[in-house]
């Protein structure tokens, strides 16, 4: 982000951020060795050692980098391809559990329940390696993916400031947008991992710009409304129903 971006109307900047995230996600997903290796492994490792970030940001980015390293090893033939997706799913479960524990600390109890339901139903995620990238083969898991998206954003608005919540609307929209444009629900898992990794790089290295540019009284009002108990209970129920749909339709 530059000073020029800061002068743009906020909605235009948001679209630019969404476009950059989408381009970076697609590039790193389909270029497992070079783009993925540089952007999703080398740069995050440098950032983790060189820049300050909070504990959860470091933990989340580290977990995601492990998955991207496994993609490289699978691509060059040093890791069994049939193990890749199951391990990626286990890393996802760990990621959700980490967030659920943080939600508990933040007294976001309804979202803790949503996180535990996501973990309990995550067996619907099955996939395969296609030679340079992986896909999921259970189309019904798109319901699980939508539940994950709602749960993840709810976590973000409790853990981070309003502008980061605004930023993560773009982050979490990116994999769903790519799924819609390609009409391929099987891409969601790899796009989710790559978009969060790429977004984590931007968030840690450019947090001051994000917090300045995406500060929005309207978004703060919306987030405050979402945090109210009736909305939180509704989100928990919706997430549970979506997860059960994924299971029943599998």
How is the secondary structure organized here?
Elements: H1 3-6, H2 10-30, H3 34-50, H4 55-75, H5 81-105, H6 109-120, E1 127-129, E2 134-136, H7 141-159, H8 162-182, H9 188-205, H10 207-213, H11 217-226, H12 229-248
Antiparallel strand pairs: 1-2
Helix pairs in contact: 2-3, 2-8, 2-9, 3-4, 3-9, 4-5, 4-9, 5-6, 5-7, 6-7, 6-12, 7-8, 7-12, 8-9, 8-10
Give structural notes.
- The structure is a single chain.
- The chain is globular and about 50 Å long.
- The longest helix is centred in the middle third of the chain and has 25 residues, at 81-105.
- It is mostly helical and 250 residues long.
- It is built from twelve helices and two strands, in the order ααααααββαααααα.
Q: How large is the share of residues in beta strands?
A: under 5%
Mean of the pLDDT scores? 94
Work out the radius of gyration. 17 Å
How far is the N terminus from the C terminus?
42 Å
Largest sheet: 2 strands, antiparallel
How many E-type strands? 2
Helix count equals: 12
Low-confidence region ranges: none
Summarize the helix and strand pattern as letters. HHHHHHEEHHHHHH
Question: Any idea what the shape is?
Answer: globular
Strand order across the largest sheet: 1-2
Helicity level, as a percent range? over 70%
Structural class, by secondary structure, is: mainly alpha
Short synopsis of the structure:
This protein is mainly alpha-helical and 250 residues long.
Keywords:
250 residues, single chain, globular, mainly alpha
